[in-house]
Amino acid sequence: MLLRLAWATLSRHRTRTLLAILGVAVSAAMLLDMVMLSTGMRASFKELLSIRGFQLRIAPKGTMPFDTDATIPDVSDVVRTLRAMPDVGTISPVLGGQLHVQVGERAVTAATIGADPTVQGDYEIVEGRLPGAPNDVVASEDFLTATGLRIGDTLSAAAGYDAQLRSFAGRRTLTMVGRAHFLYMAAGQLIVSVPLSTLQEMQGSRSLDRASLIMIRARDGASVDAVLEQIKAALPRVSAVSIETAMLQVDKRLSYFRQLAFILGAVSLAVGFLLVTTLVTVSVNERLGEIVVMRAIGVARQRIVLQIVLEGVAIMVAGALSGLALGLVTARYLDSILSSFPGLPAAMHFFVFEARDAWMALGLLTVAGILAGVYPSWRGASLPIAVTLREEAVA
Amino acid sequence: MSDAIVLSASDLRREYHMGDELVRAVRGVSLDVIRGDYVAIVGPSGCGKSTMLNLLGGIDRPSGGTVTINGARVDRMRDGEATRFRLHNIGFVFQRFYLMPALTAMENVELPMAEAKKLDGEDRLHRARELLAYVGLGSRRDHRPAQLSGGEQQRVAIARALANKPQILLADEPTGELDAKTGTDMIELLAQVNRDGTTIIVVTHDEELARAARRVVHMRDGVVVDDHRQDAQ
């Protein structure tokens, strides 16, 4: 009966109730987006790092992977040392660089990854095949579109540009063997990949036996932390990070994002709370007579409290459910804007939906709904019956 | 009618402050009401009759004196206890009906029964239908108060007051908002309720309603100035 009465009371002023639900929905959408933002970027980054199963990364001393142009010297020695470790499984050295491709009258510059095609963790072949020969190259869709090249075409490429000599260290004729999806590339970025030794040779002496990064998979069943410690002990001239330690760095760098999300989320929650408190208080003030008569005819004080709280919760929950849908739509839109920031991997997402985020937003709004009903319900339930009836009669 | 006293008020007083002024609304009223009686409390506006009714029904606390209903000291009850007592023992009818506008006539009548939890859903519906038929609104049970006339709303209010089979029905100006014809119908309905065994205490300005009662208590300035029995018309 209380539920029916709460529902009927809300239905009595449909427009007002709908507007309040809409207000809460906007607030809930904002709250969900902020909860998604506070956890999504981290979750997305972790997923990105884990996508090909490489748990460890080695970068030049004092840097994070691809943080600078620095490279690891004597990389074959490093690889030899790593191979000697029983718990190290796959080792994939990666060199970053640029290739300049002549297409008719114009030159196209592409970011280039030099990696062993059989163990690399940077791309997946979408069409064609992996590079099998030293002069094979695979490229992103955007590169193929920009150059008009197709699988099977040859291209003249140069690398290792020296600004003083105005010349390239190496030139080759490469064969396009595949179209690839590059996992860490930014949206619209032109990118190709050749075998590691090819890029090292093309870039000249400054890149010989060097890598920007070494990606490592531990053997099945091996402790990643233990492998990390072994690498740190055996190779003090490089920086080794596991996904977990990388995430700690990410956490530090993203802390302001989380703070911002927390503050905006709290504001959304407060707005929703105040909106519902105001609405329910107005509603209670309009029916003081009804409320005291309920008490007069024997309805217990706690039931009146419950009924009024239910009204607040009903608005909050209805608003929250609508807001969750709205939040997902706005999160997708905002994510598409933020993900297109230059330099960010296109696979990186700022807003990642996780069921627990929705539950958290719904839980917070439900609690806010309960709290929003506290003041008006206390007011309604504590009205002196006789005095209120007298005042109502006078009014 | 048995002569057992169902309600007894002794030296009942109610004082309150209105600004700096101390208002003595009820000043030492004593009243015994026997089971099945029909009592009309009459008097000029501000004489304390509504305050008296509130004190008798346990919705206001006396400044002094006692109210006993069926041996229970209503004036001493804590809020929750008094609410529970009213639910099971007292029916209220107000001048302005005060039905829940969001509920249908049936639901309004069901409300005290749902609170009392003595009947399950089906029995509750059955009794609500019976009561609405009793007050002549069997065909209007799915209407909301806004769809009913004043007289019909007051009938629903009476059905609601009778929902938990109270021994006493307290009515504050039940014909105050009704036209003469509807008021007459209401007076007849209350008389019928009384004939069916419910003790009624009614506060009224309405002389016709007062003439329907068996006993008339005149109040003035917070005291009883006359208390006499009459042949109910």
Describe the structure.
By secondary structure, chain A is an alpha+beta fold. Chain A has 2 domains: 2-48 and 253-394, no CATH class; 62-236, no CATH class. Helix content of chain A is 53%, strand content 21%. Chain A contains 12 helices and 10 strands. In chain A, strands 2-3-8-5-7-6 form a 6-stranded mixed barrel. In chain A, a hairpin with a 4-residue loop joins β6 and β7 (167-182). The longest helix of chain A is centred in the last third of the chain and has 39 residues, at 301-339. The model of chain A has no long low-confidence stretch (mean pLDDT 87). Chain B is α/β, with parallel strands linked by helices. Chain B has one domain: Rossmann fold (3-Layer(aba) Sandwich), CATH 3.40.50.300. In chain B, 34% of the residues lie in helices and 30% in strands. Chain B contains 7 helices and 10 strands. In chain B, the strands form 2 sheets. Chain B has a 6-stranded mixed sheet, with helices on both faces. In chain B, strands 2-1-4-5 form a 4-stranded antiparallel sheet, covered by helices on one side. In chain B, α3 packs across α4 (121-134), α3 runs parallel beside α5 (150-161) and α5 runs parallel beside α6 (180-195). The longest helix of chain B is centred in the C-terminal third of the chain and has 16 residues, at 180-195. The model of chain B has no long low-confidence stretch (mean pLDDT 92).
